[in-house]
Amino acid sequence: MRIVDDPKDLSAPDLCGCSFVPTMGALHEGHGSLVQRASASGRPIVVSIFVNPTQFGPSEDYARYPRTLDSDCALLAPLGVAAVFVPSVEAIYPRGLDAAREEAAALPLPEVAVRPQLEDACRPTHFGGVALVVGRLFDLVRPARAYFGEKDYQQLRLIEDMVTADRDRFGALEIVPCPTIRERDGLAMSSRNRYLAPEHRDAALALSRALQIAHSAQRVATAERLMRDTLDAHGLETEYAVVRDARTLMPVTGFERPTRALIAARLGSTRLIDNAPMTVWR
């Protein structure tokens, strides 16, 4: 496994047509599961580690987001990764951050990233930054497949639609969704879990418990009320707890299509998200 910081080194013949796992580092077993899924492709695996400034809002945690390159590489080394791409901000945004933020703000985004009023409402500059950096990484790495976890479900849907809408740029790139990996107690794995104080751990489990309880409902309104009640009972500040069309993330209008329950809530200064497929009937 080699560490690559110069984008030119990604053109090495042994990395062509790779399977790609983009990350912001602070890796955990959830990221490891993406790499293991990528290894089944038989292609060389490239993992990127880049804490992307353009997807953080002014009051968010960019400065304190964990940077743990040594332990990240230790996790990846036994997993058959060919290269870890660790670019500088200058390599990704050669015209500077101010220009990059302006570009991110002006990007035309798929409807799934601007209409549902979920993450797009709570973090209004977030998806422009995500679309910008993911597009840049795809341009530099030129993978055949890219692997994303379902935990960031609206982000996954954004990237799927972005790639589908611009085949001239992204060619036959395949986006591979991968299931959320959970701790033994049910908490969805996240790099931000390390922010949780030990005494907050049980309260954080309210998200996965809310999703489980919602499965007992047959109606959307009932499922949403049960999720909010569960979050409230654990002392979380709910940003949204909804059941939506799994493809568009818009309110459910019929039941011939899959649905998804999605939650965002705050526990002190830590923001947590989770989601799960749902079955509702009316």
Describe this structure in words.
Helix 6 (126-141) crosses helix 7 and helix 10 (206-214) runs antiparallel to helix 11 (220-233). A 6-stranded parallel beta sheet has the order 1-4-3-2-5-6, sandwiched between helices. It starts with a strand and ends with a strand. It folds into 2 domains: 2-178, Rossmann fold (3-Layer(aba) Sandwich), CATH 3.40.50; 191-276, Pantoate--beta-alanine Ligase, Chain: A,domain 2. The model has no long low-confidence stretch (mean pLDDT 95). It has helices at 29-39, 69-76, 89-92, 97-106, 119-122, 126-141, 153-165, 167-170, 201-204, 206-214, 220-233, and strands at residues 2-4, 19-23, 45-49, 83-85, 145-149, 174-178, 237-245, 259-267, 270-278. By secondary structure, the chain is of the alpha/beta class. 34% of the residues lie in helices and 19% in strands.
Outline of the structure:
With 282 residues, the chain is α/β, with parallel strands linked by helices. The chain is 34% helix and 19% strand.
What secondary-structure arrangement, pairings included, does this model have?
Blueprint: E1 2-4, E2 19-23, H1 29-39, E3 45-49, H2 69-76, E4 83-85, H3 89-92, H4 97-106, H5 119-122, H6 126-141, E5 145-149, H7 153-165, H8 167-170, E6 174-178, H9 201-204, H10 206-214, H11 220-233, E7 237-245, E8 259-267, E9 270-278
